[in-house]
Amino acid sequence: MTPQLLTRYADILAAVERVDATAYARTRNYTDGAVSHLSPYISRGVISLPYVRERILSRYSREQAYTFIFELAWREYFQRQWYRLGEQLWSDIKGPQQDVVHHDVPDALMDGRTGITAIDTAIADLYTSGYMHNHVRMYVASIACNIGRAHWSAPSRWLYYHLADHDLASNTLSWQWVAGTFSAKKYYCDQANINKYCHTQQGGTFLDVPYEQLPHLPIPAVLKECSVPQLVTMLPDAPAPQLRYDRPLLIYNAYNLDPLWRADMDANRVLLLEPEHYRKYPVSQRVLSFILGLAENIPGIQVFCGSVEQLLHTGSFPEVYAKQHPTTLHYPGIKDEPEWLFPEVDRVPGAFMSYWKKCEKYL
Ligand SMILES: Cc1cc2nc3c(=O)[nH]c(=O)nc-3n(C[C@H](O)[C@H](O)[C@H](O)COP(=O)(O)OP(=O)(O)OC[C@H]3O[C@@H](n4cnc5c(N)ncnc54)[C@H](O)[C@@H]3O)c2cc1C
């Protein structure tokens, strides 16, 4: 059961204290496993990876927390890749995706009617909760790209749109990993794998074939109807912010909603929603409401819908601050260092396991 999305900061901190790191290590691959559901708060920058690690290590030994921290490192690895790859994130990284037939999204996936119960249920749940279990994300991506032969770009945009934890690096690189453009080979799942991890007992589906046949399947009839969804973010009609031009300006965005960031500073605090960003990377209205809900934890914050240049043209501030992040590269002013889990490992190799081996030394 996916828990409800939290927006109150105190509730989010309490959710960190509920993580069961030992059960996590045993069960994380199962859809009813003890996963943390913390990604919406980590991705929105409300809590940092070092904070989560510190709280887990206050209750568990390093050995008990190992698997959980290993998974946190995946997130950091993807963020590091984003810095390294920049715009290259949007093209096939290790080479063109093989066997691509189209650049659309199978309608049956978007409508949750693939005929595979675990997938269809998870898609219906995504639309109400904004969450999808990691294993199911892999299944969905594999069905879209490797069985349905879609290029990863359109389906990844569709999933991103609906995820409360939408993150351009984790999402795009995971899709590329499944599609074989950021990995050595494509990822396939059969019905037996889905049944095992989703506790279903379904047979007779298009994935109910011997595993080695999966790469050679013709596109199943149910995946043949495809389209590119119209994904649009309607930004709120926010009143012009009341700004004091004798105070610094702190710029937040949907990747930094940290209530503790420069909390003791007497400053203007603005949540910047840039139309150009949301035109390129739209999110649903439900997800946008979540972002606005999280922003309420930041005292005095005001919303500005426009470009960073338009915000700065409203007047002149003594200082402008933002957190360093790939989404803030074009902001002027002072950029505060992000909080890294492994600040020592700033050169990221291509493969996650090589990266992890470097990180492990500092665990
Ligand atoms: C196709 C696809 C798309 C994805 N899109 C996103 C996305 O847009 N945003 C996003 O945050 N994650 C994405 N992921 C990664 C992963 O699915 C989610 O981070 C995870 O499911 C979040 O649930 P949780 O908080 O319960 O994770 P837990 O299993 O409880 O893990 C704890 C934390 O570790 C990090 N983490 C765990 N697994 C991964 C992983 N594989 N990759 C990156 N970080 C991880 C997350 O910050 C997570 O909150 C995607 C994975 C796939 C396969």
Beta-strand percentage range: 5-15%
Please identify the structural class as seen in this structure. alpha/beta
Ions, cofactors and other bound molecules? flavin-adenine dinucleotide
CATH homologous superfamily caption of the largest domain: DNA Cyclobutane Dipyrimidine Photolyase, subunit A, domain 3
Number of strands: 7
Largest sheet: 5 strands, parallel
CATH class of the largest domain: Mainly Alpha
Quick check: average pLDDT?
A: 97
What string gives the helices and strands in order?
Answer: HHHHHEHHHHHHEEEHHEHEEH
CATH architecture heading of the largest domain = Orthogonal Bundle
| Helix content estimate | 40-55%
The total domain count is 3
Using only C-alpha atoms, the radius of gyration works out to 21 Å
- Strands of the widest sheet, in order across it, are 5-4-3-6-7
Description:
With 363 residues, this protein is of the alpha/beta class. The chain has three domains: 9-88 and 343-360, Serine Threonine Protein Phosphatase 5, Tetratricopeptide repeat, CATH 1.25.40; 91-227, DNA Cyclobutane Dipyrimidine Photolyase, subunit A, domain 3 (Orthogonal Bundle), CATH 1.10.579.10; 249-332. The strands form two sheets. It has a five-stranded parallel beta sheet with strand order 5-4-3-6-7. Helix 5 (62-85) crosses helix 10. It contains 15 helices and seven strands. The mean pLDDT is 97. Residues 28, 35-39, 42-43, 71-72, 74-75, 78, 134, 137-138, 141, 160, 163, 165-167, 170-171, 174-175, 178 line the site of flavin-adenine dinucleotide.
